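Hey, can you fold this?
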Amino acid sequence: MNIKYLAYLTGIFFFCSAFAIKITFLVPGKSNEDFWVTAAEFTRAAALDLGFEYEVLYAERDRENMVDLAYKISNEENKPDFVLIVNEKNSAPQMLKILSNSNIKVFLVHVDLTDDQKKVIKHPRSLYKNWIGTIVADNVPAGYQIMNEMYKSIPEELKAKKVLKLLAINGDKETKTSLEREKGLYKFLNENKSIQLLQLIAAEWDRDIAYQKTNYMFERYKDIDFIWAANDPIALGALKAVYNQQKLPGKNIYIGGLNWSKESLQEIKKGTISTSLGGHFINGACALAVIYDYLKGIDINSPNYEMKINFFSPIGKKEVDEYYKYLDKNNWSKINFKKYTKFYNKSLKEYKFNPKDILRDYK
């Protein structure tokens, strides 16, 4: 190869690398936590396909650490161009304020601001001009659908009972995600009066806490037909407690969760968990598609630069094997994320972020 041509190509490579857009995902969860690792790594696959430089920082479910990481990012010499933040533990307003003192643009993902927070800081590009957009999952239909999928799975003779008893275990008592999933559950209960809610408790999204609290609930309530769980770790903790009671999950007690975790999918295959909703782990990747368009001059056309999307789909027993394969991160590099941008897909009027379609869509 001609030396001058090789030098030219090398120069282009280093030029592109030096000027690549850097994205940092400030993840609130733990670095060994199934959902948040899946979300971060799927976002990485999208970043690489879209030509972004990408890094993940885990806050390890520590609110102070989330805020400290925002300070660290804003003071770095090699600052990222964009930061994805999550309103876990209602920390977003503090992080937005910190990051507003830099030139870093911010995108809010996964967990929206609470109504009270919105009264103060309103929406993107209002109080904080560098906060360019929000894309979050609509958790109300998710809360509804967990219960609906469980109810559909029970035999007809059980549906004929005058009263079916439900234990509900939410994540926490204050985040928007919990409040919306709870709202969806109550919507279902209002439409199905035969189901009696025994108690709604919170497990802090933690498997061990869910196990301990479910054991205690069985001391209080001997007859439980359903356990509604706000995520899969809670469902798995509750499942362990159910076994302590010599009950038969999937036959005389029904459990539903959310996350599409691989362990839960295996329990669904065995019939011990009725359903897991999921797909919302693609949220960060979808934000990157929107950011890609933004950089190409195609701005967000949603009201107030905010998008709320129903990412959630259930996986039942017959679908486990298919989606277990798609959840292998080694396959994510085969997905053409550019296809979901408006820049590359000129016919796209509204974003189409359906997780099942995206996971199936290999190059």
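Oh, and this one too while you're at it.
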Amino acid sequence: MIHSVSGDILLTRAEAIAHGIAPNDPFDRGLARALRERWPAMHKDYRHWANTHRAKPGDLWAWGGHGVRIVNLLTQEGDLGHGSRPGRATVEHVNHALRALRQHAEKEGYASIALPRLATGVGGLDWADVKPLVEHHLGDLAAAVYVYETYVPDQQADEPGLVAAS
């Protein structure tokens, strides 16, 4: 079931955080930056993975460490060269990445996943185009899905079914 929530996704109690990135993403903007600052080893491990695999939009790369699971969804075009910025997200890439997220969540047996309004910040898509894809791919998932539709810094969201931190 999908729940729309307001709060700071970094304070989620969900088992995994999923978010959108680009192949060879520098993790220097938006949620990716906040995740990199909190878990720098994740970005280091991603760079290694991206350099040893042919990462492409629509793929997924999952990381677990320090009691957290991060699912990186490749929703954007990659950068075009050294020092350039990653490209924009596309509905097609989001569609493929959400399909991969569903398969990954089922395989891993996640009970809960938190995600932002995927690909609408740095990715540049309109939430009205992305939300139906989230509903289609994750709406009947066994895991609870918490979509952080409104960012409220330093505020823990009311995530139905999850116990608040004390």
